[in-house]
Amino acid sequence: MKVLVAGAGGFIGGHLVKKLITEGHQVVGCDIKPLDFWFQNFCNKSFTLDLKEIEHCLNVTKGIDFVYNLSCNMGGMGFIENNKAECMLSVLINTNLLRASIKNRVKKFFFSSSACAYNINMQNKSFVEGLKETSAYPAMPEDGYGWEKLFSERMCRHFTEDFGLQTRVVRYHNIYGPFGTYDGGREKAPAALCRKIATAKILNKKEIEVWGDGEQTRSFLYIDDCLSGTQSVFKSDKIGPYNVGSEEQVSINQMINIIEKIADYKVLKRFDLTKPKGVRGRNSNNDLIKKDIGWQPSINLQSGLEKTYEWIYNILKESNFMNNKFTKN
User: Fold this and answer.
1) What is the radius of gyration, based on Cα positions, of the chain?
2) Looking at residue 144, which CATH number applies to its domain?
3) What values do phi and psi take at 226, rounded to 5?
4) Which of 185, 222, 210, 202 is nearest to 305 (CA)?
5) How many C-alpha atoms does 269 have within 13 Å on its Cβ side?
6) Is 34 inside a domain boundary?
7) pLDDT of 27-37, one tens digit each?
8) pLDDT tens-digit profile of 169-216?
9) Cα separation of 4 and 2, whole Å?
10) Is residue 136 part of a domain?
11) Rounded CA gap, 45 and 50, in Å?
């Protein structure tokens, strides 16, 4: 099949393109970032375009069989809490890709939603019960980013009902792994903490900054499990939305302990209660996707963090070596 991956220059998009290529598909990749800033690029064709514009969506969907829409303006909690309008503008991407898919007779359309679509009133304490797909209503998602995701889910449903376009929707729960953002403000907690502890070890520092009190909880899904869950839903005859997440809920402090063991390096935690913290607790309930699709994750947090930490540590170590080398010269 000929496949369009919107957001191909991003973290999940880059991994997905690689997987689709190995399955024998012809992949067209599109991202708003210049090609030099894509995390990975295995596409047969690659374009730098702003998919908020309908003309661009119409052009890149010509001759396409499948569309994977992973494209949105997003990042970790520090980004989405401070850029609500920018996050909501991503609704134009999904809306115009759906319109273009009808015009160009796309066979199937995938939308990547988020656990941020869930009602925040159900996430106000640590170690909450896993969120079921029905927990998104009555609606009170995270402001900005969460509202955009929930609205776009409904758009997919109604394009299926009104126009017959096959849509598939999943809600990702904190995807992490190598070849993603680990600094600059858009990174999520696993990458940020791996970076902080790796940096402390390389520079022989004893303290790291932690946002909040460290008792906020989440579940985190490794990228390989994310891809298998995505493909399982996409290839099924079910519309969704489905949770694609882990049920292994940990606090930020517990995750720091895991990374310390991986790094073989202990740090002191300096808590900053002024920084964005998000909801107090969030976890995935996978009962529905297990029952309907037969999918469940296979990689535990320890194993995923080992691979993520190693990737980040090696980049930082090489960067520090090169900086010292040039300084001495």
Assistant:
1) 20
2) 3.40.50.720
3) -60, -45
4) 222
5) 17
6) yes
7) 999 999 999 99
8) 999 999 999 999 999 888 999 999 999 999 999 999 999 999 999 999
9) 7
10) yes
11) 16
Mutual angle of helices 189-203 and 252-263, in 10-degree steps? 40
145 as an active site residue: the answer is yes
Active-site choice (68, 118, 137, 145): 145
Question: Is residue 208, in this structure, part of any structural domain at all?
Answer: no
In this structure, what token pair is assigned to residue 146?
């969460």
0.85 surpassed by pTM:
yes
Measured between alpha carbons, how far is 262 from 256 in angstroms, rounded to an integer?
A: 10
Contacts with 6 (C-beta within 8 Å, 6 or more apart), sequence order: 13, 30, 31, 51, 60, 67, 68, 69, 70, 71, 93, 97
**DSSP letters spanning 161-185:** HHH--EEEEEEE--EE-SSS--SSS
**Of 186, 172, 182, 176, nearest to 75 (Cα)?**
186
**Which residues lie closer than 8 Å to 42 by C-beta, 6 or more apart?**
14, 17, 18, 21, 27
Distance CA 8, CA 17 (A): 7
Question: Position of tokens 């740090």?
Answer: 267
Q: Determine the structural domain holding residue 100 and report its residue range.
A: 2-176+222-244
pLDDT at 329: 42
Characterize 208-228 residue by residue with b for buried, 16 or more Cβ atoms within 10 angstroms of its Cβ, and e for exposed: bebbbebbbbbbbbbbbbbbb
CA angle 310, 314, 315 (to 5 degrees): 120
Can you give the pLDDT at residue 75?
A: 76
Provide CB contacts within 8 A for 175, sequence distance 6+: 11, 12, 220, 221, 222, 223, 226
Q: Is residue 131 part of a domain?
A: yes
